[in-house]
Amino acid sequence: MSADSLSSWLALREPADSAARSVALTRAIAAALPCDRPLRILDLGGGTGSNVRYLSSRLPIPQHWLVVDRDPDLLAEVCRPSADCHVDTLRRNLGPLDEALFAGRHLVTSSALLDLVSDEWLRALAERCGTSRSAALFALNYNGRSRCTPAEAEDDAIRDLMNRHQRTNDKGFGPAAGPDAVDCAEHRFVAAGYQVRREASDWILRPEQHELQRRLIDGWAQAAEEIAPEQTTMIHDWLARRLAHVETGRSHVVVGHDDLAAWLPV
After folding, report:
1. Could you tell me where the beta strands, DSSP code E, fall in 118-266?
2. What CA–CA distance (Å, rounded) separates 27 from 137?
3. Is the preceding peptide bond at 150 cis, omega within 30 degrees of 0?
4. Which DSSP state fits 84?
């Protein structure tokens, strides 16, 4: 995906992300953070800064963010949301997790990242957070579940192919944990001594969100075809019918996500 295309996708999904995130976990993390000093926050894979925009008004102030991403074009779109929120950006490949990034951080956070990384990467993440005694909040991690209305007979098969495709991905973090990511992260953070809570943060997409639905469904079909090219005819037939529901304003889509919060006992 080109930088322009990725930027437009991130902008398109941001309202759905904000509506889906767990308010309860955000409040729990806010309560666990110090309020007598500037917060030092590390945002991993931060893209254009949607996590900053969501959390900055919901956490104690003042804040000093470091937003890390490998794409300089996305980082160029990160802006400072308020006078109480200072934001720095860093272009960095997050495959190897540099301990120096975590030093002195009160909070380590990400959005829509964990399902793209490996279990081994999550082990290293929990260890880095534990060493710095950082709290953690990881939002909008895909959990392998989805539901479309009106239903089509092939919906489950397409979802299963897409989940298989995600588990074959390696974006520089090792083989992706995919739909198992939140389970893996919970296990790794508990092993590192953290208290962990998780909450559902499902996308609930209405018919008027037709462009987001269209791009999502196109992506599912592309992933399914890449993992099972012998089923191309079935996939294309399914895609045509699913998109017809979108175009006629009848399509509702639920995509399962989980938010995970973790903090060390006092």
Report:
1. 135-149, 195-200, 203-205, 252-263
2. 11
3. yes
4. T
User: CA nearest 115: which of 191, 199, 201, 178?
Assistant: 178
Give the relative orientation of helices 232-247 and 155-168 as an angle to the nearest 10 degrees.
110
Count, in order, helices (H) and strands (E) of the chain. 10, 8
How does pLDDT run across 1-38, given as a tens digit for each residue?
555 689 999 999 999 999 999 999 999 999 999 999 99
pLDDT at 1: 58
Position 182, amino acid: V
Alpha-carbon dihedral angle through residues 73, 47, 254, 1, given to the nearest 10 degrees: 30
220: tokens are: 């599912």
At residue 187, the 3 state secondary structure works out as helix
Q: How far apart are CA 69 and CA 56, in angstroms?
A: 18
Ranges of the chain with pLDDT below 70: 1-4
CA nearest to 226, candidates 157, 179, 162, 172: 162
Asked if residues 95 and 103 have their Cβ atoms less than 8 Å apart, the reply is no
Quickly count: other Cβ atoms within 10 Å of residue 96's Cβ. 11
Q: Dump the DSSP string for 43-59.
A: EET-TTTHHHHHHTTTS
Residue 200 CA to residue 232 CA, distance in Å, equals 33
Beta strands in 152-238 (DSSP E): 195-200, 203-205
Q: pTM of the entire structure? A: 0.95
Peptide bond preceding 60: is omega within 30 degrees of 0, i.e. cis?
A: no
Task: Residue 74: count other Cβ atoms within 10 Å of its Cβ.
Answer: 21
Structure tokens at 236: 């294309």
Residue 66 CA to residue 158 CA, distance in Å, equals 38
The reply to whether omega before 15 is within 30° of 0 (cis) is no
